[in-house]
Write a structure and sequence with these properties.
Layout: H1 4-17, H2 19-24, H3 26-35, H4 41-53, H5 58-73, H6 80-96, E1 110-115, H7 122-135, E2 140-145, H8 150-162, E3 167-168, H9 176-189, E4 194-199, H10 206-223, E5 230-236, H11 241-253, E6 258-262, H12 272-279, E7 284-288, E8 296-298, H13 301-309
Helix pairs in contact: 1-13, 3-4, 3-6, 4-5, 6-12, 6-13, 7-8, 9-10
The structure holds guanosine-5'-triphosphate (GTP) and magnesium ion.
């Protein structure tokens, strides 16, 4: 995943993946900026509208425009091009705060409980992460704790075969806490480095879902100190504002330690990363830009912003 050839390929795909966000945002900024000769009040108004449309969020937009006005007053914005550079730097600075890659220690099993609303990409992300960790030389075990749907267990099983990682499962309808109980003991006896737990995105009610996730997390902590070491929330970028509400809800209920943002390839709402970074102080661990095994990337702020602007 990290060698040069792969890196180049990924950057190409990242740029391609972000093309819809770029078209809806950077292109507008470019048109606005090149259409103007001087920095004017209208320019700020136009920029404000573009930022809001790209889902950057009102807080970020307000701060940025204020900062730009200050710079303009100090004559630091000589031309609209300088304004674009300022925007880019501002985005990188905000996103940098959220750039804290997962660091897996050697004294495993390191347990990652994956949460998220239905269809956000949990199971797919788990498959990609398992492949990423295996390539880095770690032994990975997967856990089918989404026992609500038979298809969910089968889907994870396909990934487990694809990435050659053992799967711990029980029948549909089994208690997820019982599945993770087994899994933790299996991972300890097999000396697995990483244990990744897939959970349900939907139950009969939201209250049931939250209670079940809390219980699963509690049982893990009881069986293994510090577990789950990472509570990883998967958000679908195409859902824009909804992703923010989900982040707030899961964080309040369960406590989230890391975020993955998927489907950046299918949306013009890439600005959602800015909102997450600005409004939630939770690290963004990975971004997803496609359905394939290699379409997951450790989040790097500068790489992301550069890919967006190039
Ligand atoms: N384009 C694109 N599709 C993705 C990405 N990640 C996941 N998907 C697709 O999104 C769909 C749902 O993914 P799943 O992994 O099944 O989602 P889930 O959260 O496990 O869903 P439930 O188990 O039903 O809650 C699948 O068709 C995936 O292939 C991504 O980064 N880009
Ligand atoms: Mg799933």
């Amino acid at each position: 995943m990290e060698d040069n050839n792969n890196k180049e390929n990924f950057l190409k795909r990242l740029k391609q993946g972000l093309s819809r966000t770029r078209k809806g945002f950077v292109k507008n900024v470019d048109e606005m900026v090149f259409g103007e000769k001087v920095i004017s009040r209208d320019l700020f108004n136009d920029l404000e509208e573009i930022l809001i449309m790209a889902d950057m969020g009102p807080a970020f937009t307000y701060d940025l425009i204020e900062e730009m006005k200050e710079c303009a007053k100090r004559n630091e914005l000589q031309n609209p091009g300088a304004l674009k550079q300022l925007l880019k730097n501002y985005m990188i600075n905000i996103l940098k705060e959220s750039e804290k890659p997962l660091c897996i220690p050697h004294n495993g099993p390191y347990t990652i409980m994956v949460l998220g609303a239905n269809g956000t990409g949990k199971t797919t992300t788990i498959g990609k992460m398992a492949s990423h960790f295996s390539k880095a030389g770690m032994s990975v075990m997967l856990v089918a704790a989404d026992t609500f749907r038979a298809a969910a267990i089968e889907q994870l099983e396909i990934w487990s075969q694809r990435v050659n990682a053992p799967l711990i499962k029980q029948k549909m309808g089994a208690d997820p806490s019982a599945v993770v109980f087994d899994a933790i003991h299996a991972a300890q006896s097999k000396k697995s480095d990483v244990l990744i737990i897939d959970t349900a995105g939907r139950l009969h009610t939201k209250v049931n879902l939250m209670e079940e996730l809390k219980k699963t997390s509690r049982i893990m902590g009881r069986e293994l100190e510090g577990a789950p070491h990472e509570t990883l929330l998967v958000l679908d970028a195409t859902t824009g504002q909804n992703a923010i509400s989900q982040a707030k809800m899961f964080h309040e209920e369960i406590g989230v330690t890391g975020i993955v943002i998927t489907k950046l390839d299918g949306t013009a709402k890439g600005g959602i990363l800015i909102r997450i970074a600005r409004e939630m102080s939770i690290p963004i661990r990975y971004i997803g830009i496609g359905e394939g095994l290699d379409d997951l990337r450790v989040f790097k702020s500068e790489e992301f912003v550069n890919a967006l602007f190039e």
